[in-house]
Structure formats: structure tokens, C-alpha cells
Amino acid sequence: xYLGLFYIVxxxxxxxxxxxHLKRWRAEWVLIVLAVAVFPAVLxx
Length: 45
Fold this sequence. Notes:
Largest sheet: none
Number of strands: 0
Distance between the termini: 19 Å
């Protein structure tokens, strides 16, 4: 369930990034937080 929620949030953040909303809201750091959250999972795969 949490993995599905994470994917929904990640996809929404990517859409907001490409439409320019994150830059307008000065929240581009959200993508860095998502990348750091995914990094440990990638190491274990």
C-alpha cells in the first residue's frame, strides 16, 4: 500500500515539475527528497 502511495506522489511530483508548478512554488527540493528515498531501494535490488 505504501509503495503504491509513493508511486502516486512521485508521479504527481514529476508532472508538477514538467508543468512548472514546483519552480513556481519553489519546491524543487521535493524531487531531491524523492530521489534520496528511492536510492536505498535501488541498492538492494
